[in-house]
Amino acid sequence: EPAVSPALHAPERTVVTTGLxxxxxxGGWRTGVARLPDSELGRALHTRLVAVASQIWSSPxxxxxxxxxxxxxxxxxxxxxxxxxxxxxxxxxxxxxxRFTAVGAELxxxxxxxxxxPDFEPLREHLAEAHGVHGGDGLAALLSERYxxxxxxATAFGEPGRPLRIRAATSHFYGETDERRTAALxxxxxxxxxxxxxxxxxxxxxxxxxxxxPVPALAPxx
Length: 222
Hints:
Blueprint: E1 16-19, H1 20-24, E2 32-35, H2 40-56, H3 62-71, H4 76-102, E3 115-116, H5 124-131, H6 136-147, E4 152-153, E5 166-169, H7 178-186, H8 194-211
Antiparallel strand pairs: 1-2, 3-5, 4-5
Family: Belongs to the class-I pyridoxal-phosphate-dependent aminotransferase family.
Domain Aminotransferase class I/classII large: 12-169
GO molecular function, one term: pyridoxal phosphate binding
């Protein structure tokens, strides 16, 4: 279901923040905006925010400001690109998620994102006995050193203890050149592209070797 902003339910006390980097994946175009409520609280926050901001941040470069003003107007070129990116993320991330759950990891349903947060808690005993892994840090190190697979442990995001959760991303599966990334974005079935299919298959092979489970098959139409 579509995400619903709290600003729709409590507009008088909700501040909405965004930026080009997170909103549109424009790394390096460092600018952000805050939409304050049109209320007494919002006006008080505005005064304080401007006072603090003037001592911390400088103005973004003029080209960045121009790009931000255009992009935040949501022209068709931007909305169509976002929709195509969402479709690509959804198809590929679901295929990779299926590989994790097939070997016994727990994973909440994912959609329209390139990030996954699988939990290997059901496999804790096996990972400890077979690999000497007792937490996400050790699991991330093992995946990197033995298989060349880069992930981040849950502790990198502030989780306490020794959770067997990691964060993985699929964005690098889309291609190493502009031509391949464009082809992935425009493909009706990106999983049919050999470089994406190969990356997803590699995930399945690594997870099978890690857990001792059979290599999971990739469904033709995820």
